[in-house]
Amino acid sequence: MNFRLAGLATALAALAALGVAYYVQDFMRLFPCPLCLLERWPYRMVIVLGLLAAASPRTVGRAILLLAVLALLGDAAIAFVHAGVEFHWWQSPLPECNGILTPGAALPMTPAKPCDQPTFLIPGLPVSMAAMNLLYAVVFALVLLAYIVRRPRRV
What we know:
The protein is mainly α. 61% of the residues lie in helices and 0% in strands. The protein has five helices and no strands.
């Protein structure tokens, strides 16, 4: 697989993650908390980076895909913080999750969905959406990194 195809596959995998999030939100009516919404931003960046990599020469595409790996690791970090909030290991760093009104900001006094209340997608499976996102982002980043650093076969 060349870097153009890898860039396209990267964009599609990130789009799939966002598609699942929006499906769960809009069709299953499981509303996201502020941390859930924050976890979506790195996937948006990865979509753009993947498309840029698909349209770039090999060396530039490789560098762009490395940036996508960094964005995915950033998403994994956000998901880890979110899972820690769900397990009550620490409080959320976002004021809107804690019901704190920031001066000058138009935020509600309490969040629509508390960040420390896990959302379970699959009934009977005690793995929250934040934990699933953590796993997906880490595996996605590792697979992409393994592709980038592999040695090309000589033909």
